[in-house]
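Need C-alpha cells for this chain, all 123 residues.
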Amino acid sequence: QVQLVESGGGSVQPGGSLRLSCVVSGRTPNRYTIGWFRQAPGKEREGVSCINERDETHYWDSVKARFTISRDNARNTVYLQMNNLEPEDTAVYYCAAHRLFDQCVSRALTDMWGRGTQVTVSS
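Here are the C-alpha cells for all 123 residues:
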C-alpha cells in the first residue's frame, strides 16, 4: 500500500497552465503505476493520464497534446503538466495508485487515492 498527496491546483484563465504534483509514500512507491483522474461537479470521475515504473504513459483523448505526465523517482513524485487549459478542465484532480499499468488504463478499482486538488479554469 502507498499513500498519495496532491498539490498544485488553483485558478487560471483559459489558455493558462498549471503543474500538479502527487507525492507517493509507503513501501516501494516507484513500483506502482500512478494515474491522474478528475471529477467535475455533477459528473462521473474520468481518467486523465497514467504512468508506470518504466515511464510508459497513457492519455485520455480529452487531454492529449495538452497534458504531460512524468515522474521523478528520486522524489517519489508524479507530475501532471497542464497547458492550454479550457473551462471544461475544471474539476477536482486526484492521483491514484495501481499495481499494474493496464489496471490504471482500464480504471480498475483501487483503494489507493489522494484527497484531490481543485483546478478551476475561468475567465
